[in-house]
Design brief:
The complex is a heterodimer of chains A (147) and B (584). By secondary structure, chain A is of the alpha/beta class. Chain A has five helices and four strands. The two termini of chain B are 45 Å apart. Classes of the chains: A alpha/beta (147), B alpha/beta (584). The interface between A and B is large, with 58 and 59 residues.
Chain lengths: 147, 584
């Protein structure tokens, strides 16, 4: 086998590695419901449960990217529907800064995604994971590019 | 305390019968876990939640001297309490338990990709093992439960719950927004399955409630503020007439805010003729010998009912559910009215007379020659109101395959039960989540249908889902039993997962004070410089402060930065992952 073939083989084998943070009350429950409803979606995301998306500090997004994650997904309660009344709004405020910060660090901001999915929105949760996985797949393995 | 000793982790992988093992190679997962750092024992078992599974955990904790337990099974939202109890029985602190969700998050949603599902399962177990190594012993705290319940809503469910609780010797504060108690049921002329009026059913309950020395009734009132935690809530109640507000300290809450009969504008000519009414409106007509047309007061000879109005409409938010009461209520109303009019037709999509005594109502209607005609789901009947005010119904009869036309004197629409318009406000007030149709979610649909994710707050009746009066009463008594259970015990355990300020690291910037949604953080001015201080009883454990603190001075117990980062690292920085994912 020649080297180019092997590397295209590797390319084929490459699967996006995605860290997903879900809040316990909405999206983690939504992901549970997706399972209970047998909704099928790509197996690339590894879900980490946090009580509230407000718990997610910028570090939780930056560190995984630094460690080579191809994407980071955060899924929480809809604005106005937070179990802790407003934690998700605090995260939303941080998010705008995060997007510009990672861009400045040479990381495509499409590698991070913030979505809202309630405990009953299993399909929205699953669709979000599918959409994001495909988006990250198109971007390819994690690398930094400065424009 | 296990803090200073090396972690000794036991991993227990559950087959859940075929549920997990059907798509995930559980043996491979258990085998892989053996090599993870700090794991001293790893196995797989058919059902970890069974007695045998629980006994296995207890036995291995002793035998292998485990000080951390990881169970890879279903969602922790389901069995975390079970396994926490098991590790406690084995002599470990409950916070030294960690659960991996291999069922809802892996096997059930990647059923056609067993290889990738197994890889994901191994990753998740590796991540949880890494987190487990970082877990800390936390004290188990208890708080007192005030012996008083707040019941929100004075309909049939609220009244029943209030009676049950007061009869058991606990105080009740019953808040009703309307001037009168009794809700929808009090207004209805005929209830099914027994032939009683709503008032006949409500009156004895009402008498009991208004006379009971332990029940304080607040009509024309609304809960406008709610804070605190299980056993120790403070509710602010506003009198809508006087505008005065008063606070009540309560230990438990039952939300029985009910439903609203859907006003089906845009359906079947509703609103275009006075003779087109909803089933609820028909029920509220003054009872009398013969049925009179609302428009001109002439006796009705030909009557038509249409079912599933605003119910069972896939893809239409808020109207996807079956409203459950209508099929039986229509059968009952049709057979009653059949004696007074010449002809009664029921146009239906499906008939679901599911409850005790309900099928008999359907048979009664049939025996009285009420005509049932099925229309197709995707081709609903059409109703036109002519200039002269005549109602014309055309539809396709599925069973005969014929197109039909009929001109009834009166048309009754069995409209949906929908949540009241302010259900969103109520859900925010009590931190309840709602289903796609807008009803309040129970803690667990099968195992905990009356409790919610806000500990100490129960739901009952049509606030939880569309249901009939008898089912609402069953809920109410159940929710009352839940509230009484908490109050009779007198104290309950609460989560120790609160935040804590390391005062040496605090830079007194007050960011956390503004970040906290509960006002649980204040500045301790007795210190110089002042440092942030968490009032643990007010902390709900969201961790927003920990994320906001620029000095990393706040520890969110059981969800520390180290615990979360350990999971991220375990996923991304494993030797195999580095070898496999190496590239520029």
């Amino acid at each position: 086998m020649t080297t180019p073939e092997k590397s295209s083989d590797d390319q084929q084998k490459w699967e996006p590695r995605i860290v997903a943070f879900c809040c316990n009350w909405c999206s983690y429950a939504g992901a549970d419901l997706a399972g209970t409803s047998r909704i099928q979606y790509p197996p690339n995301a590894r879900i980490i449960r946090v009580n509230c998306t407000g718990r997610i500090s910028p570090d939780f997004i930056l560190a995984p990217l630094e460690m080579g994650a191809d994407g980071v997904l955060v899924s929480g309660c809809h604005p106005g529907d937070c179990h802790y009344t407003s934690g998700n709004l605090k995260l939303r405020a941080r998010w705008a800064l995060l997007e510009s910060a990672i861009e400045q660090a040479g990381i495509d901001p499409r590698r991070i995604r913030l979505q809202w999915a309630s405990a009953s929105e299993a399909q929205i949760f699953a669709d979000g994971v599918r959409m994001f996985t495909e988006q990250v797949r198109r971007l390819g393995p994690m690398r930094r590019v400065w424009r | 305390m296990a803090e200073n000793t090396e972690p000794r982790i036991g991993v227990f992988v559950c087959h859940c019968g075929h549920n997990i093992a059907g798509s995930v190679d559980v043996e491979r997962v258990a085998k892989a876990a053996e090599s993870f750092p700090n794991v001293v024992y790893s196995t797989h078992e058919m059902f970890m939640c069974s007695d045998a599974g629980q006994a296995l955990i207890r036995e291995k904790v002793r035998e292998k001297n485990l000080n951390r337990v990881v169970v890879a099974s279903c969602s922790p939202r389901m069995h975390e309490p079970t396994f926490r109890r098991v590790v406690e029985e084995a002599g470990l602190n409950r916070y030294l338990f960690e659960q991996v969700n291999l069922r809802e998050h892996v096997s059930w949603c990647h059923m056609r990709e067993p290889e990738k599902a197994t890889e994901k399962a191994i990753d998740l177990v590796r991540m949880s093992v890494a987190r487990a190594a970082q877990l800390e012993h936390l004290p188990v705290k208890t708080v007192k439960v005030l012996p008083r319940t707040l019941v929100v809503g004075g309909g049939i469910a609220g009244l029943r719950a209030a009676c049950d609780i007061a009869d058991r010797g606990f105080e009740v504060v019953l808040v009703e927004r309307q001037s009168k108690l009794g809700g929808h049921v009090a207004k209805w002329t005929h209830l099914f399955p027994a032939d009683e009026s709503g008032w006949q059913v409500i009156a004895p309950l009402l008498r009991n409630v208004t006379r009971h020395p332990l029940i304080k009734v607040l009509t024309d009132s609304q809960v406008v503020g709610f804070e605190g935690y299980i056993g120790n809530f403070v509710a602010r109640v506003k009198n809508l007439k006087t505008g005065k507000e008063e606070s009540y300290e309560v230990g438990t809450v039952i939300v029985a805010t009910g439903f609203e009969p859907f006003k089906p504008y845009g359906y079947y000519g509703y609103g275009e003729s006075k003779d087109i009414v909803t089933l609820a409106e028909l029920q509220e007509l003054r009872p009398r010998e013969d049925l009179l047309r609302p428009s001109d007061g002439k006796p009705v000879k030909k009557l038509v009912f249409i079912g599933c109005v605003g119910s069972r409409e896939p893809g239409k938010p808020g109207h996807e559910h079956c409203s459950r009461h209508c099929c039986s209520a229509v059968a009952k109303a049709a057979s009653d009215l059949r004696d007074r009019v010449d002809e009664v037709l029921i146009l239906y999509q499906d008939i679901r007379t599911y409850g005790r005594g309900h099928e008999e109502l359907y048979r009664l209607a049939r025996s009285k020659h009420v005509i049932y005609s099925k229309f197709p789901r995707d081709n609903k009947p059409e109703v036109t109101v002519t200039k002269s005010g005549k109602i014309r119904v055309t539809w396709h009869d599925v069973l005969s395959g014929d197109d039909m036309m009929y001109e009834p004197d009166m048309l009754v629409l069995a409209s949906a039960m929908v949540p009241p318009p302010d259900a969103a406000d109520v859900s925010k007030l009590f931190s309840l989540t709602r289903s796609g149709d807008g009803f309040f979610n129970p803690e667990h649909i099968k195992l905990a249908p009356l409790t919610t994710h806000t500990a100490g707050v129960m739901i009952a009746g049509a606030a939880q889902a569309a249901k009939n009066a008898s089912e609402s009463v069953i809920d109410a008594s159940g929710a009352a039993a839940k509230a009484v259970g908490l109050m009779a015990r007198g104290e309950v355990e609460i989560e120790s997962t609160v935040s804590h300020v390391i005062s040496e690291l605090c830079s007194s910037c007050r960011t956390c004070v503004t970040a906290c949604p509960y006002g649980a953080i204040s500045m301790d001015n007795s210190r110089d410089p002042p440092v942030a201080l968490v009032t643990e009883a007010k902390c709900h454990g969201c961790g927003t402060c920990a994320a906001a603190c620029p000095s990393s001075a706040i520890v969110m117990y059981h969800s520390t930065d180290q615990q979360i980062m350990a999971m991220v690292e375990a996923f991304l920085c494993t030797p195999t992952a580095v070898a496999g994912g190496g590239g520029s």
